[in-house]
Amino acid sequence: MTTILVTGGTGTLGRLVTERLRADGHEVRVLSRHAQPYAVDLRAGGPGLARAVAGVDTVVHCASSPKGGDEEAARHLIEAARAAGVRHLVYISIVGVDQVPLGYYRSKLAVERLVEESGLGWTVLRATQFHELVLRVLQGAAKLPVMLLPAGVSDQPVEVAEVAARLAALAAAAPAGRVPDLGGPEVRTLPDLARSYLRVSGRRRRVVEVPLAGGAYRGFRAGGHLVREGAGEPEGGHGKVTFEEFLTERAERAGRAGRAGRAGRAGRAG
Q1: Is the separation of the CB atoms in 21 and 4 below 8 Å?
Q2: How many CA atoms lie within 13 A of 133 on its CB side?
Q3: Model-level pTM?
Q4: Is residue 267 part of a domain?
Q5: 45: domain range?
Q6: Max CA separation in the chain (angstroms)
């Protein structure tokens, strides 16, 4: 088995990638700003990064921030990986980074190009939005009495555990270049997703679609962020877990945790 470094290994995706790789018998190092012994800020680089990649066969690069710094972080990581003789760099990107003119997407696309031109063996996987991100957007919109959502926009949310499994498999294999995109099992309109969220959460809100302006909105409305098939595009992969299944499992987990907490408090009181 190989030694694999996972950047952003304590995050939503990186944590699951780490668990999957360890379950498959790989030696895994977790790099994040606060995880010892490889606590490294990739935007700064430095000797800590060199120690983290020393003796590593493969790097799975999950660390990312919409607040900026991804390109600088990737340059530092690639430089250290080349110096250490890393064999394979796996990068997780987003479906639509070349179709939707959003600042964060432009940064992800720039990192893709850095990876491709790194001189390392490389693999790039693009995935659609995680269920968790769509949920956060809907929860934010539901803070108002009326849920205001961009008109005419659909989404294709995917289960993060399925993305993690795909990344782990790619990390264990030979460099493959740009691989087929991974999207969720269903393309759904935002109002449809919102109504599913309201139904499972037991909340009541009026859902209203609002036309917006700008290139990013036009890109999302045109479906540039969805997995494309046919018309000369490579066939994309699809996850299996639907948004309703994600919401239901999350609600059931919260219910079990609540019951366990109440039982614990009752036991202590008795």
Answers
A1: yes
A2: 15
A3: 0.91
A4: no
A5: 3-258
A6: 68
